[in-house]
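Researcher: Quick test of sequence recovery. Tokens follow.
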């Protein structure tokens, strides 16, 4: 399969070897995963980070780190977070830039759940350029909302061990009981149809401009997010292996 990434004079077009095995350290690029809640971004981000030996970045981790260390950014963010208020981009992007400037990000990193807005996307591109990273790779996890609703509303989680089931396509052997430890399976309040519907609508409003932004720059690759997790990983690996080979 031929994978292509393009932005101005920055081009990566190669034929990737589907049978490539083993970890390939670093990509020299930022990898961003876009996708709605339940699309599997977290799972795929972890797999990308492991295969390519990239740090998996999280704004939540950054907030906690800065607050724990008592940095100026942390001091500004803490009262806002305690009041449940939105942390402004100036603070968020300051933390993001500080994290990307660390040595372990010199060969790239993977981010899921960020950026969320066009100004954040613009600033992230600036940070990547300043750190001499190659073209950003944006993986858009495309899913059918009706199927996603079924996936999320059917989710049941083991109270003790966190094992995940789905009453529609991966049910436990005994209803309401974990196969592994016999613990109760719970249906989280935020997995209700009403809550999920609101989250998906908010995601659409937020993400459509980002999809257009990265598409216009030739950086976006659509991924079938409804496929099995291993199939999704194979699709992503073909793109990333191609990008690495073109460095």
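Model:
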């Amino acid at each position: 399969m031929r994978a292509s990434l393009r932005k101005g004079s920055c081009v990566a077009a190669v034929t990737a070897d589907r049978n490539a095995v083993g970890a390939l350290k670093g990509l020299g690029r930022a990898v961003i995963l876009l996708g709605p809640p339940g699309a599997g971004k977290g799972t795929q981000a972890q797999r990308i980070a492991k295969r390519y030996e990239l740090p998996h970045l999280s704004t939540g981790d950054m907030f906690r780190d800065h607050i724990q260390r008592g940095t100026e950014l942390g001091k500004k963010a803490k009262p806002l977070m305690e009041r449940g208020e939105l942390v402004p981009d100036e603070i968020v992007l300051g933390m993001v830039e500080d994290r990307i400037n660390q040595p372990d990000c010199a060969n790239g990193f993977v981010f899921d759940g960020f950026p969320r807005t066009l100004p954040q996307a613009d600033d992230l591109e600036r940070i990547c350029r300043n750190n001499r990273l190659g073209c950003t790779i944006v993986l858009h996890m495309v899913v059918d909302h009706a199927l996603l609703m079924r996936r999320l509303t059917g989710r049941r989680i083991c109270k003790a061990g966190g094992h995940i089931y789905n009453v529609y396509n991966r049910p436990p052997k005994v209803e309401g009981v974990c196969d592994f430890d016999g613990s109760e399976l719970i249906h989280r309040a935020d997995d209700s149809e009403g809550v999920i519907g609101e989250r998906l609508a908010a995601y659409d409003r937020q993400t459509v401009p980002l999809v257009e932004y990265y598409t216009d720059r030739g950086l976006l690759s659509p991924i079938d997010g409804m496929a099995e997790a291993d199939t999704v990983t194979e699709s992503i690996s073909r793109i990333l292996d191609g990008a690495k080979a073109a460095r």
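The beta strands are 2-7, 10-15, 29-34, 56-57, 108-112, 137-142, 155-158, 164-166, 185-186, 220-224.
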